[in-house]
Amino acid sequence: MKTFFLSALIVTLAGALGHLFTIIILQLTGIKHPLPTQERLAASKWIGILERMIVALLVISGHVGESVFLFALKAGVMIYRTPDNSNKSDFADYVMVGTMASYLVGLGFGFFGHYILQ
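Structure (tokenized):
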């Protein structure tokens, strides 16, 4: 039971705290979101949070290889959602760097959880 609660805590932290880490990484790279604030989709934030939680859960449970599929799926879907009124290259750069940062943060939390639970 202790393992379950510790895993749940780490997965939750991967989603919530991981969002802050992803934003910090994006700010460090200097890549700005190409769309004005009012045009951004609120769903994108939640997609990233859920992605980090699922990646962390897969890594904690020992299924690192399966997490790569989630990374590729999200990258493909987000590029498909490129707005018509934006600079497609800037948007693609932002999405790819954000997706990679989010995935790495999820992996980090997952490997931390896997190590703690061993």
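The chain has one domain: 2-117. The CA atoms of residues 8 and 50 lie 13 Å apart.
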